[in-house]
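Subject: Acyltransferase

B.,
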Amino acid sequence: MDQYKKRDANIELIRDIGMLSVIMLHCLCIFPNQYPIKGVLKAFLLNGVPLFWIIMGYFLFINCNFKNKMIKTIKNILIPAIITMLIAQIFNEWINSTQNFFQCLLNLNIDWNNLLSNIFSWNAGMYHCSHLWYIFSYVKIVMCFPVLKLLCEDENEKNEARKYFIILTIIAMLASDLQHIFSVKFNFQPIVIFTPFTSNVLYVLLGYELSKKDTIKIIHGRGKLLLIYMFCNLANGLLAMIDLKINGNSDYFYHTNSVLIIISSVVLFSIFKQLDIEKMWGKNIIYFFGKRSFYIYLIHMLVLDKVVSTPLFYQLTLNTPVIVQYIILSVIVLSISTVLASCILFIKKIMNRT
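Prediction pasted inline below.
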């Protein structure tokens, strides 16, 4: 029997692309900003987390039992994230290559104040775990499920209300983008105040919209969608580089609440949702990584920080072009994270049997 029979191949591929984009983006951040290609690559790697949010919205409202959703989220999402933070604390010195692995186990140097303050402030700003902000945001959205569910039901009035909120949120974000682009004196803050949702919730609502067959029929034509995707990401990368020259900072446009990133993420999701993956070769590879994507996401920053702190990596990549170093680093991080994720799944399988 096919172990992946119940999984949607298209969604698994999108999940894989999101996971790979996040890893490659974080690996890219290791290298200096002096390389122009970094800005271009970064523009095309920003869709990773938005794709995760869209997938969340795509499935979130299928099962409407809030209690079960909350229990599963705490058990399968939040607790593994907290364990990852604890592991980062215990093995911090080993990850930084200042102590060996066994010394960390023997000397259990845990900064409980830092760990607990990050958990109770619903944050993940501690070393090696900054990427876990996504997990805390994910849990917050699940906690808001009863409210969001009122908007995400296929009834005429609720459909209109949901689309109104989506449009209002996008307008507010566009206003913020325009203010930053043109550095205008007029303050768009009054519009932003009336923004009903953050970008994370917006992506979830868009994911729900994309789960409806009528929406997929409207957003069709992979050739046109690919052109829109390329234009949005190139334009966003260009704006970021202009922003860097004018203001000395390009972080604003390298963020998920940029309207161009919102458009390109929705378009990218639509492109891969329309592919006939079931007939493609390598379907099981897509499922393989999709099944491990959550755990790969959890641990990849710990792996990345360990790899870049190891002198052996720099010896192996000495005198090689930066782009080659970047590719090697991404492959190493993905490979080690995949092996560790497979081990975690194996351990979970053994524990479930006992």
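Confidence is low (pLDDT under 50) at residues 1-5.

T.
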